[in-house]
Design a protein that fits this description.
The structure is a single chain. The protein is an alpha+beta fold. The protein is built from 9 helices and 4 strands, in the order ααααβαββαααβα. The longest helix has about 35 residues. It is extended.
């Protein structure tokens, strides 16, 4: 047998190579399986495979974080759900306390957590006894709703939750009284000026209320999951109708800080 015949003779022991792309027969078989209700061939990767990979990466990240920070599996951050007090509070459910009951949670009893209230919501601040516990620089906030003091900065006379009239601290003093004019001043111009004063006054009070609302929200974010998740909400304060009592006058510190003219705020 010549060498040329050997080269052309097919090798009986070699299997034909599989096609790299699906053939028409593959497509027909797949279509037949679909119509027949038979399961198709399993894909190479499934959702479960992707989840396993992501889970492995997450565990690897947590492990590296713990060995590097020697404290946290979340790279220095400790979410609320990793803290035992938060878990206990969620399992117990939301509290409803009267102001008298809330006053017991001021840190004086080491067996009780330290609570403070902001705008009728109660927050657990036990993670910072150095601030809110006895002897702490903010101990006067513990065991009460002192929202008004959070806004005015008057930590003696405003340790209560009554926000009525607080917006006045942002209203210019030149809007306290309507403008006055001499007797010979044109009546039309005087009426127009008083109208502008009224509009500016209403606008200033509206802006003041918005500013108070923004400040309360800023403090809420501090205590509701803020400070790395160590503070959290545990319930609400139960109050009777008319609990505010007599309308309070703006404290001296806040009154002196008021803007003088509308040009400063308008």
């Amino acid at each position: 047998m010549s060498s040329s015949e050997l080269r052309l003779r097919p090798n009986a022991y070699l299997k034909p190579a599989l096609p790299l792309t699906p053939t028409s027969s593959d497509s027909e078989e797949e279509e037949r399986r679909v119509h027949a209700g038979e399961p198709l061939a399993r894909s190479r990767f499934t959702v479960f495979d992707v989840l396993r990979v992501l889970g492995g990466l997450f565990l690897l990240s947590c492990t590296l974080s713990y060995f590097i920070t020697n404290d946290s599996v979340f790279w220095g951050h400790r979410p609320s759900f990793t803290r035992m007090p938060w878990l206990k509070a969620k399992l117990r459910g939301s509290l409803v306390l009267t102001e008298a009951e809330l006053s017991l949670y001021n840190g004086s009893d080491p067996a009780l957590p330290i609570y403070l209230a902001l705008n009728s919501s109660i927050y657990d601040v036990s993670a910072s006894p150095q601030f809110y516990g006895p002897g702490g620089s903010y101990h006067f906030f513990a065991g009460r709703d002192a929202t008004r003091a959070f806004i005015t900065g008057c930590f003696e006379e405003d340790l209560n939750g009554d926000l009525r009239g607080v917006e006045e601290m942002f209203v210019p003093t030149d809007l306290d009284r309507p403008p006055t004019f001499a007797k010979n001043y044109p009546a039309g111009r005087a009426k127009s000026a008083k109208g502008r004063w009224k509009v500016d006054r209403e606008k200033a009070y509206r802006k003041g209320r918005d500013k108070v609302k923004d400040m309360v929200e800023s403090w809420r974010q501090t205590f509701d999951g803020g400070k790395g998740g160590k503070y959290f909400c545990v319930g609400t304060v139960k109050r009777k109708e008319g609990w505010e009592g007599e309308r309070k006058v703006l404290c001296e510190k806040a009154a002196k800080a008021r803007p003088k003219t509308r040009a400063e705020v308008m």
